[in-house]
Hints:
The structure is a single chain. This protein is mainly alpha-helical. It is built from 17 helices and no strands. The chain has helices spanning 19-27, 32-36, 38-69, 72-97, 102-124, 131-159, 165-193, 195-216, 231-243, 245-261, 267-274, 278-298, 309-329, 334-362, 365-397, 399-420, 422-426. Helix 13 (309-329) packs antiparallel against helix 14. The two termini are 36 Å apart.
Amino acid sequence: MTQATPSGAAGPAGPPGSGSSGRVRRLFLDTTPLREHREFRLLWLGQVVSGMGNQITRIALPFQVYVLTGSTLAIGALVLAQLIPILVFSLGAGSVADAVDRRRLLVITQVGMALTSLALVALALIPSPALIAIYLVAFLAAGLSSVDGPTRSAAIPRLVTPAHLPAAIALNQLNYQAASVVGPAIGGLLLATIGLAGAYTVDALSFVASLAALLVIGPLAPIGRVTRPGIAAIREGLRYAADRRVILSTFAIDLVAMIFGMPTALFPVLALDVFRVGPIGVGLLAAAPGVGAFFGALLSGWVSGVRRTGRAVALAVIVWGLAIVGFGLATFSFPLALCLLAIAGAADVLSAVFRSMIIQLEAPDELRGRVMSIHMLVVTSGPRMGDLEATGVAALFGARFSVVSGGLLCLLGVAAVTRAFPELWRNIMPGRE
């Protein structure tokens, strides 16, 4: 439809993508990296399937432990078993990812993680498995994941052009959040129908898709200066991250959000004892943040145009904290609680996209594995430390108090981080000053 010029004659149509339809298209996620970069597409599709399986196990493990023991402290011990290998292995994993073929390393980690899932199947078939055995398998799986995560993230800039990197990061978040929605929902149904062994079996089978994708993409050998893996390489990565305070600030603000405002470990307690919605309710609580995050990622086409990415991170974490407080106060209504968790998830995924943009664009390729290993250390250890905090407070004061107090401490933490790191609030994306 043409528009009238001031003189009343029909003027030329606007450029492609202009007007309301163009604004709507810019609102939705940019899928250009999937269309134009075959190897990124293959890696992304393989992770869609295996990510869903991973999310099934993520809710099945604490459910199994709670059913066996009836103890929130036992869930806390499971969290500790998953946290220790992340703290121990993550930094070394980054130095390895910078020195070897990243595709080959991903194949190794995926095979190892599939074997741990098969071990969980075997344990689930035992009527009363030893807790220590469950904890040991969880320890091994978390150790392999601590290598897989930074290696996978560091590979992404090699598979897309710099102009498509923000969209690729958002697509990866969509991938993860889609798995967070579908995986726990399927997991809850599997737990209620075919049991733990069936849920773990689905996870083990899901690794086939990821391995198939990895076997057909090209090698990802190191480029530029290669540093031999070891203590010196780890120190170099730590120095680089510490010298760039804007990177350091993204780690700090994410730790604040996850340690104080992450109630995932309490979902079995809340579903079974507070809301009284059974194992399917556990899956719904676990999926709700993923639902919000999925739509947050789906409607993230606008993020590439944001200039002040650091400020966007801080505001997103504030929304997260407020939503968690609301969730803790809404235990009288299960649907309302799910909605508030969805809002929290949408805020979380936007924070993750902006933080990843800052880090990926700051770090050079020869250091990207090590910097991303620190990022993954924060991203993966933060929620588990949050689980420890949540279960510890819940053991003393109850689950509802734990959730509300954690959300409030998250809000106070954002104020402290932005005051300690003014670089975050002032950060502007390169080329957008």
